[in-house]
Structure formats: structure tokens, C-alpha cells
Give the backbone structure.
Amino acid sequence: QVQLVESGGGLVQAGGSLRLSCTASGNIFRFYSVGWYRQAPGKQRDLVATMDTSSKIGYGDSVKGRFTISRDNGKNTLYLQMNSLKPEDTAIYYCNLGGDSGFWGQGTQVTVSS
């Protein structure tokens, strides 16, 4: 069973930055697509960013130009650099390995104050 451990969430003022990390156990990380998703209170879980094994990247429309996804296969770690944060970015952020039927992290809270 693969475990994903997230870190880096917290409270930040609007316009600030945060960097999320997600480290996977085991040695399968490099063979799967990865992604970040978020869920705000009372809303569905939405795509933030994805990266496949050939480093093809996709972003949700609301974060394009502000967020950057990256991965380090040598460290089994996925990152999300979040810049120019807005209050509407407030949510629990989840990392994913392997798509909907894959593995999920426990979530990390990101709160952006106005």
C-alpha cells in the first residue's frame, strides 16, 4: 500500500506564496501520473494541476499562471508552488498518484486571508 504524506499548508495573506510537498512511500512514484486537487467547504473536489510520466502538465483554469506543479522522481516527491494566492484558493489540497483509482494523500489545509 502506497502512502502519500503532504506538507506545506498553512495560513497566508492574499498575494503571498506557499509550497506544498507530497512524498510517496515505496518505489512506484516514477511510473504514475501525479496531481493536486482541492476541495473547499461545501464544494466538489476540483483539479488543480496534473503531470504525467512524460512531464506533460495540465492546470485548472483558475490557477493558470499562478501555480506550478513539479515532481522529483529521485525523491518520490510531488510539489505545488502557489504564488499570488487569493482568498478563493482556500481549500484542503490533496495530492494524487495514479488518477481516480490510485492513491490519495490525507489533505493539507491552505487558508488565504484577505
